[in-house]
Please model this.
Amino acid sequence: MMRLIRQNPFFICCLLFCTAVGLHIGQRLIASGIPMTIAQVHYSGGGDWYGDATVIKNWLRLLRTRTDIEAAEDRVILKLTDHTLYQYPMLYLVGHGNIRLTEAEVEALRGYLMNGGFLFANDDYGLDESFRREMQRVFPEQELQPIPNTHLIYRCFYALKGLPKIHEHDGEPAQGFGLFHDGRMVVYYVYSSDIGDGLEDTDVHPEDTPEVRELAAKMAVNIAVYALTH
Model:
């Protein structure tokens, strides 16, 4: 596997294409050379938005060590209504149970996604029903669509067979879903996979084998590369 993004022909093609058609948030960040970080969404209602405390720190380290992405050291905690929202090319939303967005948060998230932002949502367990409901409020005209194993998000840096299964949950297969705007996937949601589980510090989930953690790491790198180049 090619270690550096500059050695990855797909990444180079993406940058050339973006130069021709204009840049979204992530592409502008790459062009500027400013270190990127991933903002964890502090949503208002229900759910433990604050979970996965070590995930983004470890995720950013993967980007620094495995790619040429200029990545910061740690996460930012961000409310969707914060005026700095558009500074972040990628949002991370996590939780268990019932989450609820305010109308202001729904409008802010819709605007962010329609103007080049990207949301990765990780179902820790029990998030599915409420997340689907809230996304219907963000994009009422569409529902989350299954993402096939042939999608670019599974091969934009590492060549994966599809979404890896990291945590057992109820034994269901790992499933990826997406929402799209103007042909671009703007929301990527993983169900019965729990990529975050495999990115936490090793003492948080000691039952995760090195092989499982490596699958989570590769998927996380792919998600970030995809978000920054599409």
In short: The chain has one domain: 24-229. Strands lie at 39-41, 76-78, 91-96, 119-125, 145-146, 175-181, 184-191.
